[in-house]
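Hey, I'm writing a tutorial for new members on how sequence and structure tokens pair up, and I'd like a real worked example in the thread rather than a made-up one. If someone can provide the structure for the chain below, I'll link this post from the tutorial.
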Amino acid sequence: MARTFFSVFSGIILALALAFVTPASAVVPPLKQPTWAELSPQQREILAPLSSEWDKLESFRRKKWVGIAQRYPAMSAEEQQRLQLRMKTWVSLSPEERKQAREQYKALRKVPLEQRQTVNQKWQEYKNLPDAEKERLKQVATTRKTQPKSGASRVAPTPPPVAPATPPAAAASAEPATAPAPAVAPSPQ
């Protein structure tokens, strides 16, 4: 029994020692994602809106887009059109706008399912509006963004001065107060 335990224990120690001794070159480096020139003609056609920025993208983003390009042929024509439009829109955004869009997406993913469904429903209602109504709503939103909020420009009124409180013992022994003199003298008649 002791011999079996010793042989198992020494086997574990030996395996651990070999794990720590293996050279760093034995570690597999992360796979480098293809440059634009290395993409297949079909991938380049699908990802064409990203061509100007492809070689600047981080490896994990390229991997994501290559995966999307693989799924692209199985998408409906409407989904393909929407994807092409979104890629064009994405490329037109500034780095700050992209960062903001990513943060909004992450925030939306944290919202409870019911609220996400409500947002999706409102979005669908908006998409079904006539173009003239969409334009009117955009103008209203733009106007709201440029104008200060209604209370923002007002100065908050200062509260009236509060008279110092009299301690209860002093209040009981204090003489009755007389009526204060009017601030403005009555006008002669």
